[in-house]
Specification:
hydrolase activity; AB_hydrolase_fold; Hydrolase_4; 8 helices; 261 residues; hydrolase; alpha/beta; 9-stranded mixed sheet; Alpha/beta fold hydrolase
Length: 261
C-alpha cells in the first residue's frame, strides 16, 4: 500500500500517549484528518490499524491513539475519565493535524461519548462522524475517574438519557453513520434508538447493521475488509452541493444489513 505508518509517543494530560499516524504518500486535495478512537476496557489502537490504513488508501491522513491506561500509553485506567479522554484526543489532534484541516471522527463503544465531546469542541470543523456500537453517559459521570465511582453512576437505570451527547448530535449537520452489531450485549437498545433519533435530526444520516458482529466491533472489523470499505465509502461519499443540512437520504431507522465476508 502506498502509505506510511509511524508509531510515536505524544506527551499530553500528564501522560505519554502512544499513537499511530498513517499517512498517504499522495494526499488527496482537501483531505480530512481522520481520528479513530477505541472503546473502554481492553480497547487499544492496534485493532484499529487496518481501518486507519483503509482511510489512508483513499488519500486521508489518520491518527489512532491509545488513551491513558490502554495499550502502550502510560497511566492507570482507574484514573481515566470521559473528560480526560476528550482532552487527550484533542491534544493528539492538535499535535498531528493543522488547525485548518477538517476532521472525521470515528468512535467505538465508549468513544461514542468522546466523539460528541470533540464535536462540541470543534464544531463545523468536523465534517463526518462514525459511531460504532456507541455508548453515551450521563452528565454527572463525565468528570468522574473510572476507579472513583464512575461505574456506580452509569449503572443507574437509564442514566444515559441525561447525556449531553444527544443534544450535540441533534445539532450536527455533517455526515453521520451509526454502525450497529447484530448482537450487542453491552449497549442498551434504548441508547441506540436515542442516538439514531438525534443523528437523524439534521445530519446526512445512515445506519449500517453488521450481521454476525458483537459489541467488540474494533476486533471484528479488523478481519472484515468488506465491512470496513462500506464504512469508509459512506463517510467519504461526496455530498451534493445542493443538499440542505438534514435533507439527505437516510436509513429512516431501517439499518442496512452487511453480512460477514
Amino acid at each position: 500500500m502506498d502509505l506510511v505508518v509511524h508509531r510515536t509517543v505524544h506527551a499530553a494530560d500528564g501522560e505519554r500517549l502512544s499513537i499511530y499516524t498513517v499517512t498517504p504518500r499522495n494526499e488527496r486535495a482537501g483531505a480530512c484528518g481522520v481520528v479513530i478512537m477505541h472503546g473502554a476496557g481492553t480497547g487499544n489502537k492496534e485493532r484499529n490499524l487496518p481501518f486507519a490504513e483503509d482511510f489512508a488508501v483513499h488519500g486521508h491522513p489518520v491518527v489512532a491513539l491509545d488513551f491513558s491506561g490502554h495499550g502502550e500509553s502510560s497511566g492507570e485506567l482507574s484514573d481515566l475519565s470521559l473528560r480526560r479522554r476528550r482532552d487527550q484526543a484533542a491534544a493528539v489532534i492538535g499535535e498531528v493535524f493543522a488547525p485548518e484541516r477538517p476532521l472525521i471522527l470515528v468512535g467505538f463503544s465508549m468513544s461514542g461519548q468522546t466523539v460528541a465531546d470533540l464535536l462540541e469542541l470543534y464544531g463545523t470543523r468536523v465534517t463526518a462522524v462514525a459511531l460504532c456500537a456507541p455508548g453515551i453517559y450521563g452528565r454527572d459521570a463525565w468528570d468522574v475517574p473510572f476507579g472513583a465511582g464512575f461505574t456506580e453512576l452509569i449503572r443507574r437505570p437509564e442514566s444515559w438519557r441525561d447525556s449531553r451527547a444527544l443534544d450535540v448530535y441533534a445539532r450536527f449537520e455533517g455526515r453521520a453513520l451509526l454502525v450497529v452489531p447484530e448482537h450487542d450485549a453491552v449497549i442498551p437498545d434504548g441508547v441506540t434508538e436515542l442516538l439514531r433519533t438525534a443523528l437523524a435530526a439534521r445530519a446526512d444520516f445512515s445506519a449500517l447493521r453488521l450481521t454476525g458482529a458483537g459489541h467488540q466491533l474494533g476486533i471484528w472489523l479488523a478481519g472484515q475488509p468488506r465491512a470496513r470499505r462500506e464504512i469508509v465509502s459512506t463517510l467519504l461519499r461526496p455530498r451534493p452541493s445542493s443538499q440542505a443540512p438534514g435533507s439527505g437520504t437516510r436509513s429512516a431507522g431501517i439499518p442496512v444489513d452487511l453480512p460477514s465476508s
